[in-house]
Amino acid sequence: MKTVVDILWLLLVAALWGVTNPLLKKGTVGIEHVKEGSRISQLLAEVKFLFLNIKCLLPFLLNQSGSVVFYFTLATTDLSLAVPTVNSLSFLFTLLTGKLLGEDFGGKRAVLGMVLTMLGVTLCVVSSASEAESAGLQNTTQTRNTGYQTVPH
């Protein structure tokens, strides 16, 4: 990653994706009561329910805006670092938001999973940063040691 701004963009994406998951879950409450005769009319009735329900539509739009931000952020960040970082942090935002909304988060096993996930992401970040640093030093050393000079003919 190049700057702190890139990290902040990735945090924003993780927050948008993570916070909206429990909100989408709450917003879809009641869809099981939508009943129609045929599969096509059932599908249309469910789509109508979802798109006319502001409790579902607003989190959906926020979630999709996170995807747009992620797409643009990938232009300046390393994919192998951005994906695990955003996905694991969005998991944490989902867990915290769900807890704030009164959901059960799974107890000790969920906490252990969260700790292991964060440990894995930390290892990815450290590994990626050290590889980038060593590659940058190696490229600098190679260009200094070659001593090639272009002479016009």
TrEMBL record:
Signal peptide range: none
Cellular component, GO, one term: membrane
Pfam families: TMEM234 (PF10639)
Subcellular location: Membrane
Residue stretches spanning the membrane: 6-24, 45-62, 68-98, 110-129
Stored InterPro entries: EmrE-like, TMEM234
Keywords (A to Z) from UniProt: Membrane, Transmembrane, Transmembrane helix
SUPFAM superfamilies given in the database record: Multidrug resistance efflux transporter EmrE
Main location: membrane
Membrane topology: Multi-pass membrane protein
Lineage top rank: taxon: Eukaryota
Family: Belongs to the TMEM234 family.
Protein name as catalogued: Transmembrane protein 234
Organism: Pygocentrus nattereri
Origin organism lineage: Eukaryota, Metazoa, Chordata, Craniata, Vertebrata
